[in-house]
C-alpha cells in the first residue's frame, strides 16, 4: 500500500498496546499477532495512537531523533507498511 504524506494513521480498536521499559508491545486481538518495537518505533507508535498524519509523524521524529529526512521517511514507510500488513494500523486517506 502506498502511503501519502497526508494520510491519517490510527490504532484500530482491536489492537492493544503497552509500553514496557521504553519499548511498545502490540497485540491484535483478532489475529493474535504480536509485535515488539524499539525506542524510535515506540515513539512513532505513541504518535499513531494519538492520531497523526504520516507527514507529522516524520516531521516530529526527524526533530526528535536528528535523522536525515529521506532516511527517516524511507524507514517509516517500511515500518508503517509492516504495521498495516499485520492490521495494527488503520490508514485514512485525506
If you average the pLDDT, what whole number results? Answer: 94
Low-pLDDT residue spans = none
Let me know the number of strands.
6
Rounded to the nearest angstrom, the radius of gyration is 12 Å
Strands ordered across the widest β-sheet: 5-1-6
Helical residues, percent: 40-55%
Alpha-beta classification: alpha+beta
Oligomeric state as shown? single chain
- Shape descriptor reads globular
- Identify the CATH architecture: Orthogonal Bundle
Largest beta-sheet details: 3 strands, antiparallel
Predict the CATH topology. Arc Repressor Mutant, subunit A
The CATH class: Mainly Alpha
| Helical segment count | 3
Query: How do the helices and strands follow one another from N- to C-terminus?
Result: EEEEHEHHE
Strand content: 15-25%
Number of domains: 1
Distance between the termini: 15 Å
Quickly list its features.
single chain; 94 residues; alpha+beta; Arc Repressor Mutant, subunit A; three-stranded antiparallel β-sheet; 3 helices; 44% helix
